[in-house]
Amino acid sequence: MTAMRGIVLFGHGSRDPAWRAPIEAVAERIRLRAPDAVVACAYLELCQPTFEAAVSELVDQGIVTLRVVPMFLGMGRHAREDLPGLVQAAQQAHPQLHIEVLRAIGEHAQALDLFADLSVL
Amino acid sequence: MTAMRGIVLFGHGSRDPAWRAPIEAVAERIRLRAPDAVVACAYLELCQPTFEAAVSELVDQGIVTLRVVPMFLGMGRHAREDLPGLVQAAQQAHPQLHIEVLRAIGEHAQALDLFADLSVL
Lengths: 121, 121
Description:
The mean pLDDT of chain A is 94. In chain A, β3 (63-70), α3 (77-93) and β4 form a beta-alpha-beta unit. Chain A has helices at 17-33, 51-60, 77-93, 109-120, and strands at 4-11, 37-43, 63-70, 98-101. By secondary structure, the first copy, chain A, is of the alpha/beta class. The radius of gyration of chain A is 15 Å and the shape is globular. Chain A is built from four helices and four strands, in the order βαβαβαβα. At the A-B interface, β1, α1 and α4 of A face β1, α1 and α4 of B.
């Protein structure tokens, strides 16, 4: 049996459920692509669950590694300052967990290319 | 000579220049893909230019059609409520302009697929 891996999609959060829909849609797509992964969404503010709660839930399910995907267009203050603090606290709470943080989803070169393609179609 | 077209990338805005970098990078990629288009970034708050100022600048440059690309992951309040008001005001200020508004850049199916791919790589 391989070690269970977790993926957390971390977004800003909004009172508006419509705002969350695409993040939840990405989580659904990840579940189809990686049936071995346990996937959760987590938010900085305005909606639940928090990052801390989502990570604890995945750890309870037995994950050994955690990948954090910042669902932001750019590495602004939330991804650059708020998230590292949350990751550090999670690492202290779960010292055995191996945590990897990707860069903001919108900053990958493929995303920039796709956004440009969609804009000129 | 074909009618000049304008493209405005409309984002939330941030005091943090790093936040804007990917939006400006998308604008640069659009200029390479569509040399006939005039491209501008515009922001709801916290940084310049405003949507109104960006549109006026493009109209002064002679654009006849305007495509607005909401640089948001999801159609939350900003894309669903704030932006339509700004578009309506721009239409009143420039009655000849043909304005088209795309849906939020992060909600296109290709973007959801790419975000999932990047998350499981």
